Amino acid sequence: MQQILTYAFLVIYTVTILGIVLVIITDNRNPLKTLPWIIVLVFAPVVGLVFYFFFGQNLSKQRIISRRTRKRITMQLEEALDDGRPDIPDEHLPLARLLAATIHSVPLYGSRITPYTDGKSKMEALLAEIARAKHHIHIQYYIFCDDTTGCRLRDALVAKARQGVEVRILYDDVGCSGVKKSFFEGMRREGIEAFAFLHVKFPLFTSKVNYRNHRKIAVIDGCVGFIGGMNIADRYVRGTEWGSWRDTHFRIEGSGAAGLQASFLSDWSATTKRHIAGAEYYPAAERHTDDILQIVPSGPFGKWRALLQADSYAVSNARKRIWIQTPYYLPSDVLNSALQVAALAGIDVRLMLPARSDSKVVDLASHSYLDDMMKAGVKILFYKPGFLHSKLLIIDDSLTVIGSANMDFRSFEHNFEVNAFVYDREFTARMAGVFEDDASRCHALTPGEWFNRPRPRRWAESLMRVFSPLL
């Protein structure tokens, strides 16, 4: 009997491995990704099965929201834009078309954008807008802690819910795994609708733990929105034990808020299976400036990786400068190569990283890329005063990109992210000034000091780079 069971187990096990190998082959992935998975599954099947379950599945053919619902939300957004489609400058028209084709991103005209570079000013601005809310408040964060900062926001939301304002919250189940259930349950008792995105009952036994919603969005009355890199937690306001928390967030007033609304309502529909519609969610937007922007959500579901493709295109077509702020630099080969080629071609390429991040492992992996970057002529800046968490990309004189996405594998391949692409010379000049101000507080890395770092450090960096797609 035992021999029969053993034989049956081996047959099932072998068929499972071969079946997964067949799935990987027929997915028509990049051979550089396909071959390692096959090798691991064949020669280390137990480890391979576990890693494939969590990190290897191809979700490009899956959906969390139907095409019909997505089309309905997009049409509702387009109908609300009574001033028609803006004329995109010729220099950015291909990029705008790319975003429209891959993620159905609509160009939005005339928004007033206010940047915030610290958590305190952003938090005060958000609370001020919430206090003025009349109809609805939509909140979406990867992290919504139950600390002092989180409780301030909770109390403000509860107060508005008691006044009859519709309050909806989406939070990430993994990002908020350390938050007490009573925190959100208390808000629900006050009439606030709060839901976890891709709820994870058993984190150790589901692949959903690897695909998280990293977006940070707030929309008030459909007129004002917030987007950027700051979550809701004390450290974003007060800083870390080794210094301040430097981040970037935008307040968007006007039609740009409608783009954030569409992103939120798509996630709301995917999470709750309820579609919210009505003109009150897309009020007529006043034109404040000549800015043109596109709100670009991206995620692991669907064929295209919109943010990776858009960033790669923008970098490849830069003519003057490429300035980057990111807390983690774990790029795709295509993007990494594009930045090096740009630097070799004489483009001013600057990469600003934190001198110390919140993860030593990620630091090591990120630093493994710097040798080749510096050899190509990329200027590396280490931000010294604290933790640089800003996600900023400046291309030439008229394109600024900000949002939730880091320049790493997880943001480009696994997470649900959202960025704003702003086409405007005056605004780009303003953000370039912010970058230069940060640069004055940085240590500019020299080839001599970097290439002479200890050999054990180099070995550790190379080892951690192997795991870059998992970090």
From TrEMBL:
Q: Where is the signal peptide?
A: none
Write down the superkingdom of origin. Bacteria
One GO cellular component assignment for this chain's record is: plasma membrane
Keyword presence, Methyltransferase: no
Which residue windows are transmembrane per the record?
7-25, 37-55
PROSITE patterns, alphabetized: PLD (PS50035)
The similarity annotation says: Belongs to the phospholipase D family. Cardiolipin synthase subfamily.
Quote the PANTHER family the UniProt record gives.
CARDIOLIPIN SYNTHASE, PHOSPHOLIPASE D
Q: What is this protein called?
A: Cardiolipin synthase
The gene behind this protein is: cls
